[in-house]
Design a protein that fits this description.
- The protein is mainly α.
- Among the domains are: 269 residues, no CATH class; 151 residues, Histidine kinase-like ATPase, C-terminal domain (Heat Shock Protein 90), CATH 3.30.565.
- It contains 18 helices and 9 strands.
- The protein is flat.
Length: 897
């Protein structure tokens, strides 16, 4: 049986080898063929380089002979050049002799021709250097050698099998002809110019070479791939090539050289034609290198294919041998064990893991084991019964112990529950007390900041030193930001500051401007477009605070020189969409999603780090009024914060066609030596301001003769208001500056024109202290302007601190002790004599302002718009204009020039 198994194994192995023999033979044949092609392409590369060198030597030799076999013209072949060519010729001859032609008559004939022609090279040189032949004879003597070398490329193209066929390889012989004929043109024309045009035969042959070159290029363009044609077109180009083409057209237009042709410098023609030939040769060498790379890869692929087939055949043989051996062992060994166990069945049966013939032995063994097992089970059951009796008694004792422990644990659990309830009650009491203390301290801080702002404002009204006044402006802005931080603390504490709530609607432009006035880098904010609409008074404070936090975030995370754009649109459903866009580096997508989830959460968790407090405040404020806030990545870079104000908070806009009441200019001339009038309505608590819709722009007073200080970042002056001669359109109805003026110029709550009178109704929407647009001059301010239909002023005892006054937009003014604290310093007035000259200038400014106000009122009534000239102009710095009269598409900044 063992013999039969071995015979079956050998037959299987022979069948595997016989089946794989044709594939191995084909792979070996492909490998031999690719090796022959690789050697041939290397011979072609060497022959190409030698052909280029011999062509250059031919051209120099023809010029040398044409010059009378002297080097006076600079032509000739040196010993070093001939030695280099000889080395290349020897290498090509050796490669051609060693090439395996594989029985191809074409390859054998081509290599034999190359070797024969290379053997004639020394005699060709001798005849050119010391013979008596002409330049054309010297030129023609080199042609058979060069043609034999160029024929190697054609033999390579014809020897390629179908699996290695390539259009560029097929087009290489045509390209070689193009290069060869271009080199012939170069040598013949240079020799003709060197000979002085005496030999017309050289020019005629150059004409023929030109025609042959063009025909060969047409063949190359028809057979080469688009990449090869593109490479040729992009390489054979440039100024040198254009110049060479011009020379060729001029020199080959006739079979002789004209007088104009003889006047050409031979060196220039030589250099231009040589540069053109070098570019052609570069393309030819590149294609030959590509052939070498491609055939090398083909040879490697054939080698890999042969190796894989050999490995596959070996693997199949090993699998056949392994399977046969394993099958034989699985049959022979179990039979031998069964035979031995049958002779001596005592003891365990010797069974293997895959014993197919041990069923009988296993059954006998199983019977003996079953008998022994029954005896052991009987003894084991007796022992188990005794053990269970002892376990039953032990279990009863443990159960009693567990009952007692359960009662103790129940009592301890009740005590822990009572202790937990006491701790929770104490924690709630402590949390309530801490929360109340936190809110109380925040309110006290806000009240102190309000008092601080009042004191700073008083100092500003009395200060005359420009440097000190600039410092006070910076303190004013700093206190305004402190107040916003205090209100943020109230938001974080979950409390609402209702002292500034209003019942009247507030224009959206004032809400946004108030927000800009509360950020650190306010001068970088631009407001190109906002709709003419209003928000409900009770939500104006929180919306302005929300926008301020977004603008603070945008200016902090964008380049210092970049602007932050704040725009707004009135949607079709009545909602308002605001966009705060920066030009920063953006936010990673995962972080952006995390921030949007925070903004969409009506009750966000406490922030992990202080850096996220701003967006946490935004989320709380948005949830308070149903405002939707989302951060979006911009394509041009940066982040855009989109705020959608619900329809319930939008009141609408005033009627743009409403008539403007006439202004009444009172006599404000003070007597000499009398006290200045009271400050403007924006600084006097309890004083009713002039409505924005009924007030003309503040008159512009002449600039004082004293030099004015250069304001810092916190007190940057606004650009001057354009005069009537500077306007380029119809009268404007907008009370806001033109597009491009920084937001810092239009959102200052305390800004006053140089004339000293604060424009009534200029207060921002939020009752906050903003930045000062310019230092106040020495001209005393006007208390107020009587205007038709203006609301009556209240007496000092008409209302409490919360009702002390209101801005023109409807929001109440913050007054000292609004939070219940006392100790506000009394307001002080400045008393100084009035300069008569300054008074005359002031009255002239009032008259000019009155004329401008009437013109603006007429323009608003007619619905026309007047655009100021873009860009700041030198001159006096006017105060901000009123914000009551705006169009629906009002630009709030002047175009930056």
């Amino acid at each position: 049986m063992r013999t039969r198994l071995i015979a079956a194994l050998l037959v299987s192995l022979v069948a595997v080898l016989a089946a794989s023999a044709p594939g191995l033979a084909a792979a070996a044949s492909d490998l031999t063929q690719s090796q022959r092609l690789l050697s041939l392409t290397r011979l072609n590369t060497s022959a190409m380089a030698l052909s280029h060198a011999l062509a250059d030597e031919r051209d120099d030799m023809a010029a040398y002979v044409a010059a009378g076999r002297t080097t006076a013209s600079g032509h000739g072949v040196s010993e070093d050049e001939r030695a280099g060519v000889d080395r290349q010729a020897q290498e090509v001859e050796q490669a051609a002799a060693a090439l395996d032609t594989g029985g191809s008559a074409d390859l054998a004939r081509t290599t034999a021709t190359v070797r024969q022609e290379l053997a004639t090279l020394p005699s060709v040189r001798r005849s050119g250097l010391s013979g008596t032949g002409s330049a054309r004879d010297a030129f023609d003597a080199y042609t058979p050698v060069i043609s034999a070398l160029d024929a190697v490329g054609g033999a390579l193209a014809r020897a390629l099998p179908s699996r290695a066929a390539d259009p560029d390889t097929s087009a290489e012989p045509a390209l070689g002809t193009v290069v060869q004929q271009a080199s012939a043109e170069h040598g013949l024309l240079v020799a003709a110019l060197t000979a002085g045009g005496a030999s017309s035969a050289l020019v005629a042959e150059a004409q023929q070479a030109r025609v042959a070159e063009q025909a060969a290029y047409a063949q190359f363009a028809a057979t080469a791939s688009p990449n090869a044609r593109t490479q040729y077109t992009q390489t054979v180009t440039g100024t040198d090539v254009t110049t060479a083409e011009d020379y060729l057209r001029q020199l080959t237009d006739a079979p002789y050289l004209s007088a104009a042709d003889n006047r050409l410098k031979t060196s220039d023609v030589d250099a231009a034609l040589a540069a053109r030939i070098d570019r052609m040769r570069a393309v030819q060498s590149s294609l030959a290198a590509a052939d070498t790379t491609r055939l090398t890869s083909l040879h490697a692929d054939d080698m890999t294919a042969l190796e894989l087939r050999v490995a596959l055949v070996a693997l199949c043989g090993l699998l056949v041998v392994a399977a046969g051996v394993q099958s034989s062992r699985s049959v022979v060994r179990p039979l031998a064990r069964l035979r031995r166990y049958a002779s001596a069945p005592a003891g365990p049966a010797p069974l293997g893991s895959r014993d197919e013939f041990a069923d009988v032995a296993r059954d006998v063994e199983r019977l003996a084991q079953d008998a022994a097992l029954l005896r052991e089970q009987s003894a084991e059951q007796t022992r188990e019964r005794d053990r269970l009796i002892g376990v039953r008694a032990q279990t009863a004792a443990e159960r009693e112990e567990m009952r007692r422990e359960h009662a103790a644990l129940a009592a301890q659990h009740a005590e822990l529950l009572a202790e937990r309830d006491e701790l929770l009650a104490a924690a709630r009491r402590n949390h309530g007390a801490a929360h109340a203390t936190f809110v109380n301290l925040s309110l006290r801080t806000l009240a102190l900041v309000e008092r601080q702002l009042a004191l700073i404002e008083g100092l500003e009204n009395r200060e005359q030193d420009p440097d000190e006044l600039e410092t006070l402006f910076k303190l004013d802005h700093l206190a305004t930001r402190m107040r916003r931080n205090g209100e943020s603390l109230l938001v974080l504490a979950g409390a609402e500051n209702t002292s500034g709530a209003m019942a009247k609607p507030v224009p959206l432009i004032d809400v946004v401007r108030a927000g800009v006035s509360e950020i650190e880098r306010y001068e970088r904010v631009r407001i190109p477009f906002l709709p003419r609409t209003q928000l409900v008074g009770f939500a104006a404070d929180d919306v302005s605070h929300l926008v301020a936090e977004l603008m603070e975030n945008a200016t902090a995370f964008s380049p210092p020189q970049a602007d932050v754009q704040v725009s707004g649109w009135l949607l079709e459903n009545g909602e308002i969409m605001l966009s705060v866009e920066d030009q920063g580096i953006g936010v990673p997508p995962d972080r952006l999603g995390e921030l949007n989830r925070l903004l969409a959460d009506p009750d966000p968790d406490e922030p992990d780090a202080p850096a996220g407090l701003g967006l946490y405040v935004v989320a709380r404020l948005a949830a308070r009024h149903g405002v939707r806030v989302q951060l979006r990545e911009q394509k041009q870079g940066g982040v855009a914060a989109v705020v959608v104000v619900p329809r319930s908070l939008v009141v609408g806009s005033a009627d743009p066609d409403a008539p403007v009441p006439d202004l009444i200019m009172p006599d404000v001339t003070p007597a000499v030596g009398t006290e200045d009038p009271a400050p403007a309505a924006s600084t006097a608590p309890g004083h009713a301001t002039i409505p924005a819709q009924a007030q003309a722009p503040a008159p512009q007073a002449p600039r004082p003769s004293a030099p004015r200080p250069q304001p810092g970042p916190a007190a940057r002056p606004a650009p001057p208001a354009p005069s009537a001669g500077d306007r380029i359109g119809p009268p404007t109805t907008s009370g806001t500056p033109a597009a491009g003026v920084p937001a810092a110029h239009v959102l200052d709550e305390h800004a006053r024109p140089p004339g000293g009178a604060a424009p009534a109704g200029r207060e921002p929407t939020r009752p906050r202290h903003g930045r000062h647009a310019a230092p106040r001059p020495d001209v005393p301010p006007v208390d107020s302007l009587p205007v038709a239909d203006a609301p009556p002023t209240q007496g000092p005892g008409a209302a409490g601190p919360a009702d002390a006054g209101a801005y023109a937009t409807g929001l109440p003014k913050r007054v000292p002790r609004a939070s219940g604290l006392t100790g506000e310093p009394p307001a002080r007035q400045r008393v100084r004599p009035v300069d008569a000259e300054a008074l005359r200038r002031r009255l002239g400014g009032f008259a000019q302002g009155l004329r401008d106000g009437r013109r603006d009122a007429e323009a608003e009534a007619t619905g026309t718009v007047e655009l100021p000239l873009p860009g700041p102009m030198p001159g006096p710095v006017p105060g901000p204009r009123t914000t009551g009269d705006r169009s629906d598409s009002e630009p709030s900044e002047e175009a930056r020039g």
